[in-house]
Amino acid sequence: MLSAFSDIRKKEISLWIVICMAFLSLSDGAIALFNGKRNIEDLAICLIPGAVMMLLALLSRQSMGYGDGVIILAIGMTFGISKLAVGIAIALFTSGIMSILLITIRKAKRNDTFPFVPFIFAGMVVSMFA
Predict the structure, then answer these.
(1) Considering the entire predicted model, what is its pTM?
(2) 36 secondary structure, DSSP code
(3) How far apart are CA 90 and CA 119, in angstroms?
(4) How many CA atoms lie within 13 A of 55 on its CB side?
């Protein structure tokens, strides 16, 4: 949530917030692994969407930022692939609708950027209750 506010205000994500999220996520994954609730393959699969987002950031010259990919990496390890897939789908859909709306009412142009982490946050909240 802190990263969502940071993304809205500054269009950047604090490195310290990301480091804390990564530490908590890795800790959660390690605990689940040692308790037998998850296996190493499951944890590795959960990292794929974040890695893809980071690759997209690289290929698109940061049209999507690296921070979005790192946030998705951390979320994937904690929530699992099914909740993450639903959350990302909701985030992509709602951000697409929002961008179309902003372009239609002429509050934004096609090349404008806007923060994506708040949409990820909202998508994950919805996926937790779906």
Answers:
(1) 0.81
(2) T
(3) 8
(4) 6
- One digit per residue, pLDDT tens: the chain, 130 residues? 556 566 556 666 777 777 888 888 889 888 988 998 888 898 899 999 999 988 988 898 877 778 888 889 888 888 889 999 999 999 999 999 998 998 889 887 877 778 888 899 999 999 999 7
- Alpha carbon distance 114, 111 (integer Å): 10
15: exposed, middle or buried (Cβ count in 10 Å: 0-12, 13-18, 19+): exposed
**Token couple for 39:** 């296996």
State the Cα–Cα distance between residues 100 and 22, nearest whole angstrom. Answer: 32
Q: Which amino acid is at 41?
A: E
